[in-house]
Design goal:
single chain, six-stranded antiparallel sheet, 13 strands
Amino acid sequence: MTQQHSRKQPLSIAFIALLAVTLHQSFAATDAPPTAASQTTSPPPAPPGRPERGNYTVTNSNGTVCLMARMGLQLNVSFSSASLNKTVLDVVNLQPNVTKSSGSCDSDSATLLLKADEKTTNLTLVFSLNATSSKYHLSGVTLSAAWPDMRVPFSASNSSLDYMRGTLGRSYMCREEQTLAVTVNFSLNTFQLQVQPFGITGDQFGAAEECQLDEDNMLIPIIVGAALAGLVLVVLVAYLIGRKRSHAGYQTI
């Protein structure tokens, strides 16, 4: 009897050890974190398309127009998101149908204030005129916004800019999209832009001075066309020379 009892004891210990290992593996599988396949993340929002072009004017106290602008505007703003708890970049189109324009003009400064009620957005553009050179430029941009997901209201300003250079009495035009860097967390995209802050006659834009982007885009087709014309001319000259030599070979001596 003693020998049989001693043989069963190792078998019981082995069975208990196997059971403990099995239970441990089952608990480990239950407590394991979900795999990457089971985790769902929402895709980033798609960027908006080209903004609608709006018409904005500023009038003097006597009722005459002192600033005109026709353009599409897009805001690129980096801010602290309350829902995501991190800094995000939001691209927002300024909608002309919910944007009101106002401003003021004097002899060497013109201000255009755009207030969009849709997202509580205020955008200010300041143009400065050099009376000596009769040249103007966009010298300042300010943006204040209080969008729903912002942890705190956003504010950015720069009064040392040098964009949209034009001549007094003429308008500045840029059909191509251009990006105006204002601060590290705010830039402004313009589309189909035409603006004139000084020297307006009636309510019409003066002769347009095109931006460098438009001039470059016009220059490329001219260069390509000139290159193709040159190639055709080279081929034609080579053909005529070859034909002349061929006729010379059949002359009688």
